[in-house]
Give the backbone structure.
Amino acid sequence: MERRNFLKGLIYGGVASIASFKSSTLFSKEPAAVASGGNNDLVAVMGGEPAQMYAKAIEAMGGISRFVKRGQKIVVKPNIGWDKSPEEGANTNPELVAAIVKDCLRAGAAEVVVFDHSCDHWQSCYKNSGIEDAAKAAGARIAFAHDEKYYKSVKIPKGKRLKEAKIHSEILDCDAWINVPVLKTHGGARMTISMKNFMGIVWDRRFLHANDLQQCIADCSTISKMPVLNIVDAYRIMTQNGPKGKSPDDVQLAKALFISTDIVAADTAAVKFFSQFRPMDINSVSHIGIAEKMNIGTTDLDSLSVKRIKI
Amino acid sequence: MYKKLKWIRVILALLFFLLITLNFVWFANSKASLLSPVLHLQFVPALLGLFTGTAVFFAFLLVITIFFGRVYCSLLCPLGVYQDIVSRIADLFKSKKQRREKYRKPQNFLRYFFALVAFLPLAAGVTLPLALTDPYSNWGRISSEIISLGENLIHNLFAGIFPESVFYRGYAPFIIEIFIFSAFILILVTIMSAFRRRLYCNTVCPAGTLLGAISRFSLFRPEMGSECNMCAACSTVCKSNCIDLKNRKIDVSRCVSCLNCMTMCKRGSVTYRFAYRRKEKKSGMESAGRVPSGMDNFSDDRRRALLTMGLAGTALVARAAEFRPFKSEKEKEVEKKHSIAPPGAQSIQHLKDNCTACHACISVCPNRIIKPAVGEYGLDGLFLPHLDYRNHFCGYDCNACTQICPNHALIPMSPEEKKLCQIGRAKFSLRNCIVFTDKTDCGACDEHCPTKAITMIPYKGTNLYIPKLDRDICIGCGACEYICPARPVKAMIVEANQVHLTAEAPLKEEQEKVKVDDFGF
């Protein structure tokens, strides 16, 4: 990995120096690095459309180029768990996925890959969620995740119950990945947000269910290859019957988005936001508390630089 | 004229053969809604579905047979067309002399033995022997087991070469019994047709025998006229070896209406003729050497044909009257064995009565949960489709199997009907549930349940939630059983409904839409 990046750096450096007279045009398409918004730890946006909220949020985070470097291979990992339409709110919003993919490519990513380990029939999920079409149109490659052969076994030394898991090789092989969950209730984990979204990079999700789900979810967030960003889609939020839902009745139009480098903080903010629609005790979403104890992140939002944006 | 007709037959036959086979092959059967209508024109499925919705197709097949004989065998039957292809290929390896056919006596013992084996149980309410000898269904099983396996191998070869654009496709669960059975039929038919062309159709195939019996009374039959100069050209190209030059007779019960003889005859002597004009022109026909020696044999054939039709007719009457002397007393035993019939089957009995085990539903299932039963339905349900939730579950929005079935053994269901079709009901056993045994959160079943028959409720004395199951809403899709992580025994197991029911509609749970202006932190 290191060597590959180094080589890529060499190549791009070479190209840049040779074409230095073009460099102004070459880099002009990139979003301004370290934008005026500054480098916040957590940004919350509400009141806009998915792509619009993403643009505001990423700007306040310092721009995508803070996280995605030229020539990198990036994975954008949404929730594509269910054979449901975008209106049913069971999967990540396709417009948001498309906006992130475009932004990564604009920042010079060599390749952006989108996948999820679906629960329902995977092709139906990819198609009916609208994510396959949207991501492809935005320039991403869709990766497959329906078979064990796409996963590789990885040790999780810091895990308490989950000490080894088969992780999708696109995650293992990428330079950086962006976690894009959707905000929903969950019968077992209580809520499914950023940490729970890791279930979709793991092959054997039954193992997690069978070995203290909440602990395993937290364990999973101790892997060395953590996402560089967690972007919580709260445009449509599922406030009952999650995570699959029965009908659009289960969904509320919340029009919000949370983005953070701290996975625990992202989930904390999302739960607090969610509680306004339907009371949810953050202690009952116990994987968040466990993760904090394991030093994965913090639930103390006041300790972070937080930016709130209303559109 | 016959040359043109024959070309039309060949082209149509190949087209039907291709379209029928594509129904069983993965890359095409996602378009099953376009392809599956060709499956309706199959004789045995149409016959079995006579009282459950395929009477039109059966009538059509009957009418063409009454008019022109066994057109079905050369035009629509995939196994028949396969044999033609094999014998064509085999001809490439034969000398000119070996390629010449001649008249052979009918294998009457075998023919009527197999017809009896197929139709006698049918008259007693047992469909299986006919299903296992039906040529279409045998081709279906061969396609489903062997051809689609080959296609899967090739697909995965490509997946290996282009890992980013072609996905790897796991293989269907291998069930040795059905593989051996299909391979045996394939080898048998291949060998028989390589050496003796349509011998299979005229010895083993019960559909061929029954259609042959009907053909004995067809209105138009191939006959030799007085222009014949005994050149024997017709008989050398006859696939069924049924042109008896010596007696100037064509055994219409074996003739598969391939039109070879008619295209071959230079004098236009072998043609389709209206059979019932014979009596008026008696003298002319007699002079053609038809009567004396042939007559005994003729009446013998007639008797057998009548017997066959009588038997098949009795079987149909028995079906109409739902006469079932051997109605399995093992039903309770079957229930214990936990076998679930696919949606649309209505009941396991309806499936046993109508299904020919062609495995179109098995091939079309996107989740590959339909498998051929080996012992799951008992002996009279051998190779019938049943659901197995080990590797996946029944897709809530999917109705593919009900759409592809050629004869309403699975009645067609709209997605809305299918969403309420209760093929079984989950049973929750608390003592196996992770929440109970490990005192940790799980919720895998609730997560997957499409109807919310399963909900999570607070579990007494803890801060955990435990599944609650409403069996009236459950449709038996098996999502909970599939995902349940409890071992060695799952906490959610779907029990089959012997007779499929309609589940109660999922509860409507409208919620007040909340307006929020703040972030909450």
